[in-house]
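A.,

Following up on our hallway conversation. Structure tokens first:
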């Protein structure tokens, strides 16, 4: 047995304490969050932290962060074919090695076309007519959304969730889908519904309280709106696993916002989709605000980089660029159909209006932030491109304006003509074969309804 002197023990403890403190400081520095940029959508999305730049750490569009230890990775390569397939993704943005948080952009806010070797092939076949079609989709979707907001303010709808500012993300991704693909939306995907052929008036029944959805999901492969935050990601993953088992040549896309990305359902969806190599695309519209909670208070890294931890690619795209959203989503869906597994697409955009009509964004964010994003408006951006390229003339815009006003009138008339639902319909489908408790509740409700008639008759 070796006896250690008191002096030697004190010296050892002192040295160990210093080493521990150094290790703690190093760990804290390594865990420092990436600093988000000002929100400017250029070829790079968010700026690098100074420390990452000084250590020479670089990130890729697939979401690889500087925190990965290169030596450790090299020592333990994963040589499986499946692993290679699930991590391969085109480089985003300019392809500069020094950029960490890159943004795929094909159309600048001024309407100038930007070349991108990886994603240009996915929009190379677009004709001037196709571009005008994308513009028309965005304009009519915005007009419908504005009419729905007005109807809620007039008491015709109980609630409405506006998509204002997110038209490019929805139209671009929606037009990338094929008819046999299946879409799982949240409650704000009005533009995607438009692309899937769902009549806009059918979207309003639930918000008026006359039905629980308003359309047959299987007729357009477009699921009913999901109010529960994040649960549709699990539904999409399970459906995609079924598609894979059936051997179908189709893909699934799930929409959610930056707030939903903090939900456990979304994390579980990432896990299951990665493990089972499900043909699903997770399309996250990062509009910067989860109601009143900014993105920087929800994550320490850009959202698209979360995919890395689950073993599949993540890409950040300019969510106000309809061409970039179309190209990236096409790539992700084709990848899913080839059996290469899931992809996370983060559409970096901005919620120009309130979270819903029950929200007041002026209570938690500055107006100058909204003004800055107005300069990146997706519709104005594509209009500038169409005009500069001589792909259209003023008569097109005039005709489209008339068409959008006609759509507004049709929506307004359709909402006001919606019949009130049967008061007792809520009891009909609770159980397939009926239930004594439901019968009792139905009778109580009938008595309650009859009391109003008795009160009116006694006047």
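Then the amino acids I'd put at each of the 459 positions:
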């Amino acid at each position: 047995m070796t006896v250690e002197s008191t002096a030697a023990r004190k010296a050892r403890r002192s040295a160990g304490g210093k080493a521990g403190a150094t290790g703690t400081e190093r760990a804290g520095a390594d865990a420092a969050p990436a600093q988000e940029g000002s929100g400017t959508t250029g070829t790079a999305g968010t700026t690098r932290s100074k420390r990452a730049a000084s250590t020479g750490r670089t990130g890729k569009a697939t979401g690889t962060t500087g925190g990965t230890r290169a030596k450790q990775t090299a020592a333990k390569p994963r040589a499986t074919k499946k692993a290679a397939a699930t991590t391969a993704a085109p480089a985003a943005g300019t392809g500069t090695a020094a950029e960490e948080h890159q943004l795929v952009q094909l159309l600048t806010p001024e309407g100038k076309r930007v070349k991108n070797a990886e994603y240009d092939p996915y929009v190379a076949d677009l004709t001037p007519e196709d571009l005008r079609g994308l513009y028309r989709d965005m304009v009519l979707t915005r007009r419908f959304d504005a009419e729905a907001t007005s109807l809620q303010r007039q008491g015709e709808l109980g609630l409405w969730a506006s998509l204002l500012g997110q038209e490019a993300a929805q139209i671009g991704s929606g037009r990338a889908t094929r008819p046999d693909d299946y879409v799982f939306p949240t409650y704000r995907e009005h533009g995607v519904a438009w692309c899937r052929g769902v009549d806009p008036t059918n979207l309003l029944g639930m918000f008026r309280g006359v039905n629980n959805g308003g359309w047959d999901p299987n007729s357009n492969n477009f699921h009913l709106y999901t109010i529960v935050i994040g649960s549709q990601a699990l539904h999409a993953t399970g459906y995609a696993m079924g598609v894979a088992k059936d051997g179908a040549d189709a893909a699934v896309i799930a929409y959610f916002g930056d707030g939903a990305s903090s939900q456990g359902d979304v994390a579980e969806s990432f896990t299951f989709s990665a493990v089972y190599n499900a043909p699903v695309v997770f399309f996250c519209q990062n509009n910067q605000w989860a109601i009143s909670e900014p993105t920087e208070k929800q994550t320490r890294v850009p959202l698209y980089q979360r995919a890395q931890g689950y073993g599949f690619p993540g890409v950040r795209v300019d969510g106000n660029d309809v061409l970039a959203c179309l190209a990236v989503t096409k790539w992700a869906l084709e990848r899913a159909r080839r059996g290469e597994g899931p992809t996370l697409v983060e559409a970096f955009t901005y919620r120009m209006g309130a979270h819903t009509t029950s929200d007041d964004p002026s209570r938690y964010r500055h107006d100058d932030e909204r003004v800055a994003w107005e300069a990146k408006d997706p519709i104005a951006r594509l209009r500038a491109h169409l005009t500069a390229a001589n792909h259209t003339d003023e008569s097109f815009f005039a005709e489209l304006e008339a068409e959008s006003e006609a759509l507004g009138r049709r929506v307004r008339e359709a909402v006001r003509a919606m019949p009130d639902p049967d008061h007792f319909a809520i009891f009909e489908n609770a159980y397939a074969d009926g239930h004594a408790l439901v019968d009792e509740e139905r009778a109580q409700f009938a008595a309650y309804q009859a009391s109003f008639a008795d009160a009116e008759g006694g006047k």
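The longest strand covers residues 280-286. Curious whether your intuition agrees with the design.

B.
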